């Protein structure tokens, strides 16, 4: 075998072990007994040690040095690029630090869930402070003299920088705030959907929706979790959702969102299975898939017309009497605390808040003990509403409790990518709404599958979006889409 073949055989086993680690995380968030958390923390730490040892195995470094990248085809070169990037990063992090991070973050998930349920940030703060300290150590090791936050961001969006994102977000903020103010001040305000909605019927509907958007249930499943997520790649890709008897839109749109993530993973070329190319290339690109499924498609007037009829079958008559009123209710702007339940206009403002606060924590400018006060002050300044409890504030998201610093800004980057993709898709598919009005998202998912999903990690994130859209990504298509849509919704 060639050195490249040796490397890829070794990598295939590593990828398989990473899938097992992901399955442990899925189990912990869905069906694991609560009392198993201490043991699961040890299991996660042990597996982390194994994976870190494989990622930093000296043989990987030797293979990388001995392989002539010019002799490989584009797939081989891309595999090499990913493995080299990971090897360079992993060899900078001491194995003891990697294991401690895995142990602490696995244990903290349960502590976060309990603190969230009890609205007790003070009780969780010491655990979060430990995580932040460990992430600072990791960031310093990875940065090698560069910006520590950029080093963490690179895990989720290779090639991006905080400065670049800050400039993009600065361009987003003024038009988003202006649009929000116009909408909330509009004379016409849509009626919200109210009532009681059977949760078993919601779960049945979520599975139907996942199938409608192309999710292959033969290689996946839909379960419930405190915080909806997607897990896995290739032949085993699972999604979760959550239900509320008074908010069926929460279940519907969290499911469609996670279906976007899952379809990306399921539609990657099977030739890339258990290789570095066999998963989404970045969280920004991943989020572009979930957000375009959820918003531009799932909240469109065409699709909500079809969904309205499905709601009538599932839940009977509702307080919104027709499809147009239902469309307006599904897109209604409303003051709210929860990022995942936010409307399209205000969503990015939630992300910008988290981006700024987590950068300050990693930089040492914000102590964890002061996080709740800083969050509440920033939220009231941005949204004009005082936070009433910790579960509506700095305890609402699971991300920091599991060490995902650098992750939040990819949500807004994904929205920007989705805006670019939707503009291109609409131009190339003039009959798009006719398909969505029939609940048929097959042609849409095929377009995204061809342009984005099948490539997996073959291209770098920005290159992938540029290839799909014919131009480099920027924030203008997203802002133009939002202003046009909400002007129509609110009769501005």
Give short descriptive properties of this protein.
single chain, 492 residues, mainly alpha, Neurolysin, domain 3, 3-stranded mixed beta sheet
Summary, kept brief:
Broad specificity carboxypetidase that releases amino acids sequentially from the C-terminus, including neutral, aromatic, polar and basic residues. The protein has 492 residues and is an all-alpha fold.
| N-to-C SSE string, H for helix and E for strand | HHHHHHHHHEEEHHHHHHHHHHH
Measured distance between first and last alpha carbons: 67 Å
CATH topology of the largest domain: Neurolysin, domain 3
Q: Mean pLDDT, nearest integer?
A: 95
Task: Give the amount of beta strand, in percent.
Answer: under 5%
CATH C-level class of the largest domain: Mainly Alpha
Shape: globular
For this structure, the quaternary state is single chain
Note the main sheet: 3 strands, mixed
Number of domains: 2
CATH architectural grouping of the largest domain: Orthogonal Bundle
Number of strands: 3
The whole-angstrom Rg is: 22 Å
Low-confidence stretches: none
Helix share bin: 55-70%
Determine the structural class based on helices, strands and strand pairing.
mainly alpha
Count of alpha/pi helices: 20
Strand order of the largest sheet: 1-3-2
